[in-house]
Design goal:
The chain is mainly alpha-helical and about 525 residues long. Among the domains are: about 170 residues, no CATH class; about 170 residues, no CATH class. The chain contains 24 helices and 7 strands. It has a 3-stranded mixed β-sheet. It has a two-stranded antiparallel ribbon with strand order 1-4. Helix 8 packs parallel to helix 10. It starts with a strand and ends with a strand. About 15% of the residues have low confidence.
């Protein structure tokens, strides 16, 4: 039996998160104050692992990951849909805005003739669809987005509308924000910055009743608690890997790097064409919202709307001008929040354009936002969706075979394997010398991964026995590496090694074999 996913851009992500969940299931925290990185030797885990840790705790009841991962995704999607209804204040068209989130920017692939005629037209669906590229693949967002929306709704009522009674208790806000670094650092950055901006706007507003001083006092008290709650996780993430924790690049580049145009330069496109291609639907709605807000008769709503637009445009400008991670695509994690901040204004625009016709609202949303993306998804993966056959992540029998052999090792013993994203040893939750280098690079470990890759290549290519390693060769490995794995993936990577030439074939059914290193 094979484990499959319907999205090719989810192959690496689902493998990484499944391996991390299995690692925690086996007791990956170990004797350390902070868990070690399962994919990089002698390195603390600097990746926000909160969702995977919660998944591992739920997995203890006996549900397999093949059931638990989709189930949690479904539950989180239902919660997100309900929160989007509240966030947009629209009971009739709320799920239309969920469609925007799912298909924003997919217009290009809906017309393949235009894509063929215009070489600057970006062909990657995985980038265009925020839903498929982020909500499906980034497990941390399953907790971060609902929690973040709860905070934004509470702050909107408190700071932008002046209805303190509808806001969350400050203790709840403090816990949500304080624990956010464990789940998603980009969201934590957005929440803290947005809160500061809205507090400043509320302090100088004159269009709605001022918030009493006691509210400021209680909220500041709440943020003291938030700092106390989040200081430990944030400090450990930063100490483990500052670059990975904040999404920065190399250590020397700092937290921000000037990079105009987002990904436009990657595909050789003029920036203006890139923006039209990827953001035209959102841009039209933002322009409409600005025009309506200038004439909105209700001052309180106008202040809240202007504040939302100002915040969204600020994050949009940051996305277009700066890069805060090694991979420029990761700016999409901030763009997601810019889109969410605009969503409450869209029902207002539709209600003005089509005040008496609900079907007209649905048709407008479908035509401008959802339909192009739906056509793109159909062209991109329709055949696989209809046949029920997706992209293979791993073979179940290979994972079971590897887990059976790895049972003799402790969870703190590392194994030298080929650094591929879906290696069965990694999916069993066993830490390895070096994991998939693309994951490590995008998480901020690029320099360390390159050093370990050279050492791993030198060690594995010179193996002369798959039974027991001699002391001299064992001394070449880091202290926590206790074994090596040799299978099809290792043969493919180290084809010129002496082990591959002699190939004594220790595999059982070709799945691979474990070799203990001499103490």
């Amino acid at each position: 039996m094979t484990i499959e996913t319907m999205l090719p851009n989810n192959l690496g992500d689902v493998s990484f998160h499944a391996g991390l969940v299995a690692y925690f299931q086996r007791g990956g925290w170990g004797p350390f104050l902070w868990p070690q990185h399962p994919l990089l030797v002698d390195t603390a885990l600097g990746y926000p692992f909160g969702t995977d840790f919660l998944t591992a705790m739920l997995a203890q009841i006996g549900l397999p990951l093949t059931v638990l991962l989709p189930l949690l995704f479904l539950l989180a999607s239902l919660v997100l849909g309900r929160l989007l209804l509240q966030w947009t204040d629209s009971d009739d068209t709320g799920f239309g805005w969920l469609g925007l989130l799912a298909f924003v920017g997919c217009c290009g692939l809906a017309w393949p003739g235009l894509a063929a005629a215009a070489p600057w037209w970006q062909p990657s669906l995985s980038f265009k669809s925020l839903f498929f590229s982020m909500w499906v693949t980034q497990r941390g967002l399953l907790v971060a987005v609902p929690a973040g929306l709860l905070c934004l709704m509470s702050w909107r009522w408190r700071w932008l509308v002046g209805q303190e009674s509808r806001a969350l208790p400050w203790v709840v806000e403090a816990l949500l924000v304080g624990l956010m670094p464990l789940f998603h650092m980009h969201t934590a950055l957005v929440l803290v910055s947005t809160w500061l901006l809205w507090v400043l706007l509320a302090a100088f507003r004159d269009e709605v009743p001022a918030v009493p001083g006691r509210v400021f006092y209680s909220v500041w008290r709440g943020w003291v608690l938030a700092c106390a709650v989040g200081l430990g996780p944030a400090a450990m993430l930063l100490s483990a890997n500052p670059a990975a924790a904040v999404g920065a690049g190399a250590y020397a580049t700092g937290l921000l790097r000037w990079h105009v145009g987002w990904q436009a330069a990657t595909f050789g496109q003029p920036l203006l064409l890139y923006l039209v291609q990827n953001m035209a639907p959102v841009g039209c709605w933002v322009g409409l919202a600005w025009g309506l807000l200038l004439q909105r008769p209700t001052l309180a709503h106008r202040f809240a709307g202007r504040s939302l637009l100002l915040t969204a445009c600020t994050w949009g400008a940051l996305v277009l001008l700066f890069q805060i991670s090694p991979w420029d695509w990761d700016n999409s994690k901030l763009w997601l929040w810019a889109v969410l901040l605009v969503l409450p204004l869209m029902p207002m625009g539709v209600s003005v354009l089509l005040p008496y016709h609900k079907w007209g609202v649905a048709i407008l949303v479908l035509a401008t936002l959802v339909l192009p993306g739906g056509l793109a998804v159909t062209q991109f993966g329709g055949q696989r969706l209809l046949t029920g056959h997706g992209y293979t992540v791993a073979v179940r029998s290979d994972i079971d075979h590897a887990c059976g052999q790895l049972a003799m090792l402790s969870v703190n013993s590392r194994v030298a394997v080929a650094p591929v994203f879906n290696h069965p040893v990694i999916l069993c939750g066993q830490p390895v010398w070096l994991g998939y280098e693309q994951h490590l690079w995008s998480h901020g470990y690029g320099a360390r991964a390159r050093v370990q890759a050279q050492a791993l290549d030198a060690f594995m290519a010179k193996r002369h026995s798959v039974q027991v390693a001699d002391a001299a060769q064992a001394a070449q490995t880091p202290g926590s590496v206790r074994a090596m794995w040799w299978g099809p993936m290792e043969r493919q990577r180290w084809a010129d090694g002496s082990l591959n030439r002699h190939d004594p074939n220790p595999d059982e059914g070709g799945s691979g074999g474990l070799c203990l290193l001499a103490p």
